[in-house]
Amino acid sequence: MKVVVDAFGGDHAPGEIVKGVVAAVERQGITAVLTGDRQALERLFAQQRWSDRGIELVDASEVIGMEEEPVAAVRQKKNSSLVVAMRLLADGAADAFVGASSTGAMLTAAVLIVRRIRGVLRPALAPVLPSRGAPFLLIDAGANAECRAEQLEQFGLMGSLYMEQVFGVASPRVGLLNIGAEPHKGTALQIEAYARLQAAGLNFVGNLEGTDALAGRCDVLVADGYAGNIFLKSAEGAAAMFTGLLRELFQSGLSARAAAALIASPLKQRLRQIDSRTYGGTALLGISKPVIKAHGSSDATAIENAIGQARRFHESGMTRRLEEALAAKSPPADPA
To answer: Based on the domain organization, do 146 and 264 belong to the same domain?
Structure first.
């Protein structure tokens, strides 16, 4: 399997990106393509004495910045590391994409170059998040600020298939993010989406509040991109605050340091459970090839794990299963 990686996307590019790719090639039995300034990449390999076995370099002279307008940047910077990588994916020169570049630019490039699966109304961002139970999938986490109920229904289908095929969850429990459990709660959008999800043949467990999802009551949490992104950023902020408070506590004195030493092993295990790097990246579901968006601040560990996620996505046959599921349904309405 071959993964194409945008070597110049992200806060720590290209160093941490390339380091993560080298580790993934060594440990996961894959090959990789790195897109970006070829001379800069060659210098980096030489300086760090990294092996380039199984890694191909493809020159791309431009970079799309985090603050650039996505559509204009993708259309104008045709030789950017992101656009070149997406073109390689679309042309079949790679099996999956991983990148830590701008979310908007990556989403735009995926839709314009790689294209949606036939029948998909809207692609959706779907990160895997920790809970007190098993991890769960949030869909959508910000690709679509405004949604229709039929799109939320389709998010439920895509999320359920992803957790089943990629993570091996049997009959994934699908919940709808809302302000209460009763079917009549929420706006007209949530009320209609509830009815659609209930009739969709999924293992729908009803409306869930954010605390329910974090307590482990679902495997898939469906939301419009606006509410989903707020939920995601709030959860990330709470996790960062918690780990920061723990760090301050255990550095506050000798007795605190002694207590930290006693619980170091189980504490590290729990902190790893809420570390976003553990889960790699965010899948962009609904695109015709596997696309994984790594966090902009990703280090080598996060990139390596994102590549592992892309590998599982490709090997799972999820895209084919989704195509079959959509074909079995009546033709959807035209995308809005």
So the answer is: yes
